[in-house]
Write a sequence for this structure.
């Protein structure tokens, strides 16, 4: 009986581990952004945004800002505006939009690094951008980065 259970676990466990799949965002995709140090950040907005309600500063601390900002699916770039007391800094993020379908997920959207040209333009002195697929296999207890991650050093 013990051998049978052991064999069953060894056969089923790999199937369970491989069967987990993340189909990506269920709404508009966001980018993870870290801005350090905060340097008296007053507000964040984006060009063409109808409202600033999604650009919240509730994750602002003395070490900086960390949060998620929405990106536009209407074009292949989004320009973020960072308002400080005496100036405004900008970050234009470029990406490739993917609208497709798969047997696993049905219709989906994904964001990839641009094929040509820069990945960003900014007035900040130090910006680092990393692109990860929003879709992919997952495993319980393991972290797989998803989406676009931006780290801004503001000094």
């Amino acid at each position: 009986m013990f051998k049978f259970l052991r064999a069953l676990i060894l056969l089923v466990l790999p199937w369970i581990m491989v069967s987990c799949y993340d189909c990506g965002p269920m709404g508009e995709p966001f980018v993870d952004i870290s801005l350090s140090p905060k340097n008296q950040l007053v507000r964040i907005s984006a060009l063409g945004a109808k409202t600033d309600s999604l650009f919240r500063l509730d994750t602002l601390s003395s070490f900086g800002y960390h949060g998620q900002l929405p990106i536009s699916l209407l074009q292949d770039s989004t320009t973020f505006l960072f308002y400080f007391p005496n100036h405004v800094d900008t970050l234009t993020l470029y990406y490739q939009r993917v609208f497709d379908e798969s047997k696993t997920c049905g219709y989906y959207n994904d964001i990839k690094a641009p094929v040509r040209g820069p990945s960003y333009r900014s007035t900040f002195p130090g910006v680092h951008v990393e692109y990860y697929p929003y879709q992919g296999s997952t495993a319980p207890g393991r972290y797989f980065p998803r989406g676009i991650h931006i780290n801004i050093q503001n000094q």
Summary: The chain has a mean pLDDT of 76. The chain is about 10% helix and 45% strand. The two ends are 65 Å apart (CA to CA).
